Amino acid sequence: MSLWDQRGTYEVARASLLSKDPGIPGQSIPAKDHPDVLTVQLQLESRDLILSLERNEGLIANGFTETHYLQDGTDVSLTRNHTDHCYYHGHVQGDAASVVSLSTCSGLRGLIMFENKTYSLEPMKNTTDSYKLVPAESMTNIQGLCGSQHNKSNLTMEDVSPGTSQMRARRHKRETLKMTKYVELVIVA
């Protein structure tokens, strides 16, 4: 029985880069060395997965300005070079419905969705090529904010792209005219 079938456990994966090797998967790669296309092999106990990845383009618009506020209310605006980064998207070869979203900044870290299940991939401590592949259903989620009502992570492909009726069921009207507004952005790093 695979560790995937046991709630609260993970499967150990060994990673190797099959395309031109930009560096060791467990170490941070300088941004300028991140290739546009990567092919990564994950060796699991039960099988091998080949991940076809492309570096995200247009992730953040040119001229994007980041603004944050100090304790005294002073605003600080920064403009950074967001074109050199280590964020990738792609799929698992042999599964057209799969979705992969990974960062290569400090080893491989991110989400892999295939066979109608979602897994989190993260580096194991004290190794450069071993990773934990954790089923999302074994992870608990902090109760969401900003109108999100769910508190369990049971992600499937349908949850990521829900139908209109599902969206209406999870959303509710809020009085927002006088509220502070935030934009939430999740970047796998």
Q: Provide the β-strand percentage band.
A: 25-35%
Number of helices: 2
Q: What is the makeup of the main sheet?
A: 8 strands, antiparallel, barrel
Q: For the record, give the distance between the C-alpha atoms at the N and C termini, rounded to a whole number.
A: 31 Å
Strand order in the sheet with the most strands:
1-2-3-6-7-8-9-10
Q: If you average the pLDDT, what whole number results? A: 73
* Structure summary, number of beta strands: 10
Overall outline: globular
How many domains in all? 1
Low-confidence stretches: 1-7, 21-31, 141-155
Structural class: mainly beta
Q: Helical residue percent?
A: under 10%
Element pattern in H and E? EEEEEEEEEEHH
Detail the topology: elements first, then pairings:
Blueprint lengths: L10 E7 L19 E7 L4 E8 L9 E5 L5 E5 L7 E6 L6 E5 L5 E6 L2 E7 L6 E6 L21 H4 L3 H7 L19
Antiparallel strand pairs: 1-2, 1-10, 2-3, 3-6, 4-5, 6-7, 7-8, 8-9, 9-10
Task: Tell me about this structure.
- This protein is mainly beta and 189 residues long.
- The protein is built from two helices and ten strands.
- The protein has one domain.
- The longest helix has 7 residues, at 164-170.
- The two termini are 31 Å apart.
Structure summarized in a few sentences:
It holds the Pfam family Pep_M12B_propep. This protein has 189 residues and is mainly β.
Record keyword descriptors for this entry.
189 residues; mainly beta; two-stranded antiparallel ribbon; 33% strand; globular; disordered N terminus; ADAM metallopeptidase domain 12; Peptidase_M12B_N; disulfide bond
